[in-house]
């Protein structure tokens, strides 16, 4: 889970969008 959270933070920082947890991962995938 920590890895997923880290990925979410990275995606959030790179994209500048607001997303948390599974929703961000689903959108990214």
Ranges where pLDDT stays below 50 over 5 or more residues in a row are none
Instruction: Categorize the overall geometry.
Output: flat
Number of domains: 1
How does the helix and strand content classify structurally?
A: mainly alpha
Tally of extended strands? Answer: 0
Q: What's the total helix number?
A: 2
Mean pLDDT: 67
Over all CA atoms, what is the radius of gyration? 8 Å
Q: Main beta sheet: strand number and arrangement?
A: none
Please sum up the structure shown.
This protein is mainly α and 29 residues long. The chain is 76% helix and 0% strand. The model has no long low-confidence stretch (mean pLDDT 67).
How would you characterize the overall build of this protein?
There is one protein chain. With 29 residues, this protein is mainly alpha-helical. The protein has one domain (1-29). Helix content is 76%, strand content 0%. The protein has helices at 2-15, 21-28. The longest helix is centred in the N-terminal third of the chain and has 14 residues, at 2-15. The radius of gyration is 8 Å and the shape is flat. It starts with a helix and ends with a helix.
């Amino acid at each position: 889970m920590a890895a997923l959270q880290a990925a979410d933070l990275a995606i959030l920082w790179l994209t500048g969008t607001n997303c948390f947890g599974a929703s961000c991962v689903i959108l990214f995938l």
